[in-house]
Amino acid sequence: MNEAIGFWAQSDAITLTKGESIQDALSKLAESESSELPVVENKRFLGVVKLHDCIQWLTKGLKWHEPLSTLITPTSRTVHAHFSLQELHEWPLYVIDKTTDTFAGVFGKKELQAYHRALQQTLAQKNRQLEWYQLCFDTAYEGLAVVDENGVIQMFNETYSRFVEVTKEEAIGLPVEKVIENTRLPVVLKTGIPEQNQIHQLQGQRMIVHRLPIWKNGEVIGAVGMLTYEGLSEIYRMMEKIEQLNITYKQEKKLAAKKDGFGQMVGLEEIIGESQAIARSKKIARRAAQSKAAVLITGESGVGKELFARAIHEMGEGKNGHFIALNCAAIPENLLESELFGYAEGAFTGSKKEGKPGKFELAHNGTLFLDEIGDMPLSTQVKILRVLQEKEVERVGGTKPIPVHFRLIAATNQPLKQLVKEGKFREDLYYRLYVIPLHIPPLRQRKEDIPVIIAHLIPKLCKKYQIREKTIDKEVMRLFLQYDWPGNVRELINLLERLFALVDRTHLQKSDLPEEFLIKKEMPVYPVYQKLHDRNEALRLIQNEEERGLIENVLKEVKGNKSKAAKKLGISRATLYNKLSRFNESLH
To answer: How confident is the model at residue 293 (pLDDT cuts 50, 70, 90)?
Structure first.
C-alpha cells in the first residue's frame, strides 16, 4: 500500500489568501469543518489561520472585514510528498512540492480516516493470504520444517508432524535436533550450502530430503527442511514412470554420446542456476533452439557461452548432426582459413595427401560454433560472409564448391558494435550474426546462484578426489557472496577444485581462501581529509561519507519512504533515523 502522504493528501483543499477577510475565513472554516485553514498566495504556503484566533480577535473588537494578514500563524507541520505516513504523529499536515517549493495539498482528519480504512483492508487481505499460506503449508504432501539462524523451529507442518510423531505445537520453539533425528539442518545453517535429494534416516525409514538455507542481505537467517519422498520404494516407482516416458529421448542421447571427437552434449538443465538473470538467458536459448536463425552469444569470459551454444544445438532440429566448435582467438591467422575451409589434396607443403575437411564441412546438417569471433581477422570475415550467403564452401587449393547447411552460433566477450564503428569488424557480418542476441550475465549479477552451483559441484569433486564428505564454512560463503568473481563461473569451479586438492580438512574455512578474498580493499583518501594526521579518523569519516551516499541513493530509489529504505538496507527504522540524525548533525 502506498504510504507516501502525497498520495493521500487533498490537492483541491479549501485555502485562504492573505487579502481575504476574517468573515471569509470563518465562512470557509465552517464549510471545511476544520479548526484551521492554510493560507496560500501565488501557490506559496504562508501559514495557517486558526478558528480560535479569529474568534479571539473578534472579541477584542476587530472588524469582520479586516484582512487576515495579522492572523497568519507560521507552522512547522509541513512535509514533502514522499513523507511516509508511518512517521505520522500529528495532523493536519501541509504538503509542499519539493521541486517547485509550492503548496500541494492538505492531509487532515478525513484523509487520515481514509488511510486507516485502507490499512484495515490491506491488513484483512494480508491475513487472508497468511491463512492461505498456512493452509498450503499444512496441506503440502512434503514434510516441511523451517528453523531460524539458531536452529530453533519456527514453522512445522502436519506432514512432518506425522512422521516424527511430535505435534506442531510441541515442535515450534524447540531446537530442531530435538525433534528431527539425524538432522543436518544445523550443518546447512553453518555452511549456507543447500543439500538436495539427500537420503535421510528417519524413524527407521530411509527418505529423500532437501535442506535449503534461507539467505537475506548476505547472511543465513534460517533454513528449510523438506521431505520429498516417503521412502525409497516410492522413488523407484517414480523412476520407472520417467524411464517409460523418456525411453526415446534416452536412445537419442545415447546415439549423440557416441559421436566421438565432437564434444559432450549439454542440456539447459545442466546449466546450474535459479536466479532471474540466468532464467531469462535460458528462456531466450529455448526460443532460439526452435529457430534456424544465427545466434550471437555475448558475455564475459568464463560465464559459460559454449555451454549455452551446446544446449541450443541439443534442443534444435540439427541435434543429430555434429556440434563443431572453433575458438577464433586460439588459431593463428595463417592457419585459421584452412581450419574453417579445409584444404584440397596437395594444397601446400606438409598437407595431408587426401586433403582435409574444414569446420564448415564437418558442421554440415549440424551446428558451427565460432567462439571469440571478435578476434577474427577482417580478411577471414569476408570469406565467412560469402559462405553464409552462398551456402557453399571451397577448400583451400580446391576448385569444386561443396554445399553446406549448418546452424551458426557465434560468441564474443568484446563489444562488436563498437568494433564495427572502429572498422575492426565488418558491419554486414555483424548483422548476419546479430539475429538472435543472447547475453549471459556475469556471476556477480547472479550471486544467489553461487550456493546452488557449489551444492552441484561438491558431490562431483568429492567423487573425483575420493573424499566421503567436504563442507564449507558459512564465513567462506559470505566472502564468496561479497566477491565480484572477475573469472565468473570458471573461476568459482577452479577455486573449489583447488581447495579440494590442497586442503586436507573436511571443513573448508576462511583461512583456506586465497589472498584476494581476505584482503580488504584500501579506502581512497579523499583530498578533504588529507590534512588529518589521524589516519583512523580519516578512514572513519570516509566510511561515514560513503554510508551517507548509499543511504541517500536508496532513499531516492524508494522516493523517500524510510520504511522501505530501512528494509532495503537491512537495518531497522530506528537505526536509519539515528544515522540520518547523525549525518544532519555533521553538516552543522
So the answer is: very high
